[in-house]
Amino acid sequence: MHDVINPATEEVIATVRPTSAEETDEAIVRAHEAWPSWRSVAPGERATLLRRFSDVVRDHAEELAQLEVANAGHTIGNARWEANNVANVLAYYAGAPERLFGRQIPVPGGIDMTFQEPIGVVGIIVPWNFPMPIAGWGFAPALAAGCTVVLKPAEVTPLTAIRLGELALEAGIPEHVLSILPGKGSVVGQRFVEHPLVRKIVFTGSTEVGEQIMAGAARQVKRVTLELGGKSANIVFADADLEKAAAAAPYGVFDNAGQDCCARSRILVQRSALDRFMELFEAAVAGVRVEDPTLETSEMGPLITRSHFETVAGFVPDDAPVAFRGTCPTGPGYWFPPTVLSPVAPGDRSFREEIFGPVVSVTSFEDEDEAIRLANATDFGLSGSIWTRDIGRGLRVSRGVETGTLSVNSHSSVRYWTPFGGFKKSGLGRELGPDALDAFTETKNVFINTED
Ligand code: TAP
């Protein structure tokens, strides 16, 4: 049995029996057997089932949110957003079964048409940082496309996924169409990669494991979507509204205690504005409310586990260039204060590696070219922000930065109706948005001879 621990209190809140390799195989076979009838559910009916699933999730949003606060230490405000995000993503992709168009392409001698065929059983491997949204971004379009799903939550955060699986059944999604298999990555996740009946893997997590999954999947030419790490830049030009940029900066990196692949964990500030920015930023960091995540006022909770706390702390040794820090509770829980490192050189470990905690590095630059060069001086390319009042510069720099999801004068990354994903080692493929169904379908081309 696996103890599930509340990271804010270190108390055991549940015990979950991990799925074995044999049980995983059985679930995969059952998902495969459920596939023919699920894919042949009439489009309108599949849409109705997904809409009903969305409604049931929304009806249970508060329960799911409370569960996530207890299991992952998310602030209650964030957790409510996350539960409703699952409902929204289901509602959005409920519009898809009736719009799964093929094309008719002019050819001589007959008619040529394409069909978007569901790929089969999809294995979704979810990390612990956003257990609900990341599960939903995978299963909603997969189910809409007519695939069946086996889903492995992270071992430390299985509770909301298990509940979502129950709610799917309650909504009328047939048995074995969406199966939640809590357990270890090296057991359950590994079987998803190895089992030939799983035709596609959607993996979110570390680049290291993502590389292994891609290599394993290659043996069967198994399709993969990978959402991996990030080291995104928040680029602040001197002509920006510095008050706004500094006030928003903590929330661009410390949200979810920095355990966010989109965290803007490098702040690049134009040299002439550096002193003023740091002054404003210090006040903003001091204002971040790091406290009991059940409180409505809480803006940041604890880190996920003791071992992750140790990893994050390893990026802030005694001689680290700490410019200033925020505050956090003492006592039980894996609390880490918002921490600002400056000056940090581009070669430093904290500038290059994903910390996945509330630690941000500040570096200065001279001009646009240097800003783009520094932003791109990383293996990752997931997200990023640009603060400037010059819209031409905002666009030039957006085009220059090698990253999948950028925002100008804000830190927003994810809207479920726009594409999300990374360049370089941040991943492969895109989730969300109008094209996500492409990741769960194969294009079939059929020619019908009409001449003889
Ligand atoms: P990972 O080890 O990558 O875990 C992510 C998921 O993959 C978990 O469900 C995990 O299962 C599973 N997994 C692990 N090894 C596997 C394997 N060999 N085959 C199939 N599935 C496997 O991430 P982590 O340990 O949770 O975090 C480590 C670092 O990864 C973090 O510090 C952070 O830098 C990065 N990270 C990035 C993201 C995003 S969104 N990009 C999310 C989480 C973590 P278990 O539960 O058994 O580990």
Explain this structure to me?
The chain has helices at residues 21-39, 43-59, 61-72, 76-93, 131-145, 159-170, 185-194, 207-218, 242-253, 274-286, 306-313, 349-352, 368-375, 391-400, and strands at residues 2-5, 12-16, 104-107, 110-118, 121-125, 148-152, 178-180, 198-204, 223-227, 233-236, 266-270, 322-325, 339-341, 359-365, 384-387, 407-408, 427-428, 441-449. With 452 residues, it is of the alpha/beta class. The protein folds into two domains: 2-228 and 426-449, Aldehyde Dehydrogenase, Chain A, domain 1, CATH 3.40.605.10; 233-415, Aldehyde Dehydrogenase, Chain A, domain 2, CATH 3.40.309. The strands form four sheets. It has a seven-stranded mixed β-sheet, sandwiched between helices. A six-stranded mixed β-sheet has the order 7-6-5-8-9-17, sandwiched between helices. A three-stranded antiparallel β-sheet has the order 3-4-18, with no helix packed on it. It binds 7-thionicotinamide-adenine-dinucleotide phosphate (TAP). The site of 7-thionicotinamide-adenine-dinucleotide phosphate has 26 residues, from helix 7 and helix 8.
How many individual β-strands? Answer: 18
Largest sheet: 7 strands, mixed
Give the termini distance in whole angstroms: 66 Å
- Named CATH topology of the largest domain: Aldehyde Dehydrogenase, Chain A, domain 1
Beta content comes to 15-25%
Under the CATH scheme, the architecture of the largest domain is 3-Layer(aba) Sandwich
How many domains make up the 3D coordinates?
2
The helix-and-strand class reads alpha/beta
Q: Specify the number of helices.
A: 14
Low-confidence stretches: none
